[in-house]
Design a protein that fits this description.
Order of helices and strands: HHEHEHHHHHHHEHH
Keywords: Coiled coil
Strand order of the largest sheet: 1-3-2
Radius of gyration: 23 Å
Number of strands: 3
Number of helices: 12
InterPro entries: At3g17800-like (IPR038925), DUF760 (IPR008479)
Pfam families: DUF760 (PF05542)
Number of domains: 1
Largest sheet: 3 strands, mixed
Length: 330
Amino acid sequence: MKENPVLFDMTVDEDLEKLQVEKEKDDEEKQNKDLEDNAKEDTLVLRKRIEEVKMNERIRAVTELLYLKVCRKFQQLQVPLIPQLKEGGDVRFGNVDLKGLTTDIYSADALELVRDHLFRIIGQQGGNPSFAGGMGVVQIALFQAGQVYAMSAMFGYYLRRVDQRYQLEKLAGTFGAWGEASEETSNPFSEDPGAADSLKGYISSFGPDEVQSMWAVTSAEAQLAMEMQVTALFGDLRALKEKLVNALGMVNSPEEATMKLEKAIKSKEVESLRITSDDLRRLVLEAVAFGSLLNDSEKQFDTLYELTPASSRVMGLLTGDDEEGRMLPE
C-alpha cells in the first residue's frame, strides 16, 4: 500500500469486479435452481446454507478491502492512525498536523459541526476543545474512550452524507437543471433563504424520520468496517461495558455514578486511559475522519460492486450501548 499506491487502488478495483462477477454468477445459479420442481427438502436446506456461506465470505472480503481503502486515504493525508489502546494506561500519540483531519477533508460548513462535536466531547472531559489544543491530562475508562470513538465515527459518516446533500441542494437552489439561474424551484433553499445560511440550520429542518434515515449506515460492509476499527483499537465494547456496569453496581444519580467510576478506575477494577487533551482531541478527530472517509470509500465501492444493504440491527453492537441506546456512564 505504501510502496505502490496506484497498484493498490487498481488491485482493489480488480478484486471488487471479480467479486461482483462471482456474486452475479451465484445469483443466476440460484434463480435456475429455484425453478427445479423436484428438489428435496434436505437439498434445499443444504443449498441455502451454501449460499449463506458464500455471501458471508464475500461480505468479509469486501469489508476488508473497504477497511484497507480507508487506511489508504489516511496515508494519502499523511496522518498515521492511532495505535491500539486495549491495554489502557498512559497514552502518547505524538505530534501530527491536524490539517489532515480537519481543513483538508471537510467543507467550511462541515468543519463548523466537527468543531461543535469536538467541543461537546472534550468539554465534557474538562479539556481544551479548540483545534489548537492544550496539554491538560484526563483519565477515562477504556469503555468511555471506545464509545467516544465509535459515536464520533458514526457522526463523521453521517456528516459526510448530509453535507454532500446540503451542498447539492444549495447548488440546485441557485442553478437550474442546465446550469442557468432558476427563479422557480421546489428546492427548500429557494423557498427559505435562511435555510442555506448554515449546514447546522439545514439539519435542524429535518424531521425525525429523515434524521433516522440519514444517521443509518448504508451497507453491511461499511458497518462491519467501522466495527472492525473500533474493536481493533479498544476490544469488545460490550464486554468492557459489562465489566464497567458490574463495577459500578446500582446507582441512583449521575453524581453517584461519577464517584463510583472514579473509584473503580483508581482501584483498577476497570481499564482506563490517561490521555492529554491534545491526544483526546486527535482521537476524536481521527474517529470523525474515519467515518467520513468510510462514507467516501463506500460510495466508490458501490460503483463497482453491489454492496449488501445494512440490516436494522442496533448500532449498539458497535457502540456498546444498552437497549435504550443510552451511553453509560455519562
